[in-house]
Design a protein that fits this description.
This protein has 13 helices and 2 strands. With 313 residues, the chain is mainly alpha-helical. α5 packs across α7 and α11 packs parallel to α13.
Length: 313
Amino acid sequence: MAETNLMYYLPVISLKGRKILIKLIIAILTSIVLSVSSALTLYFVYGVGEFTMPFSEKAEGPKAAFLNAVYMLTMVVMMTFFILLLIKKRKSGLLKALLLIMMSFICGISASLVLPLWITIAFLYIFLALNIQISTYFIQTFYSLTYYAILLIFSINMVISLIYRRDSLRNALVLLSAVWIGVLFGLYSGRLTPLVLMGIFATYDIIAVIKGPLRMLIDEIKPRKQKAGLTTQPILGLGAGDILFYSLAVSYSIGWIQPFSHALMCALLVSFVCIFGLIMTIFIAHYLDKAAAPALPISMFLALIVIIIFTIV
């Protein structure tokens, strides 16, 4: 089985060549800027809510946060073992097709949540600046057309990037998708659910990467040359889930911390500790000579401390 081809279909940002750490920091800074701008747009237009999770905190109280976390964790574990099963059964063609469909769908949907809103707002400002009168019907129609156009364009581009191995395009689309899904979860999963998700998934990341299902998946799909230690080009992979949670933490700070001046300060500090935690993780992994290390624990636990402090104060 062509492991390298299969690895390419997984939602991981792959950084190669020299100055990998600088490339990684640039990618994280880009994701944070996108998180802040996307969260501010959605927050000022729609506010906050809790429609992304199956259990409602308003209806079931704080226990809903833990139920949502268990639900999400169960889905992630089941998906990981499903991928492992298909690899063991040597169904790489089927797995690639499923991953292609899933990643293109997620990419299109996530892009259509934010970009049409940005484009519509930009056009509204242009029309207002030109003193052009427009109807509500025109705005709604323009938004709808933009929504479906963005959905189609981003889905097709993800398919192209995977089939024709466009590394830069694929990395950009994976990063954007992870950021926008993280913003959605941060703003619209309730007040407690995002915090519980951060804590539980940071803990799970330690187990999963060291001896759990993610470790098994990494070992299974790692290219043969890497297994034999024959690669000369440095490669660093950052999972889309890691970026998703960094984005979730930043967007949660913007949406749920009050007053707004504190929210911006909290988002800034959360961004800093996420970057700091990731860099510390890389240095620890290098010091311990580990090929893979959990990217969430240090960043998420520090982010949780910052958010709790701002919530109390």
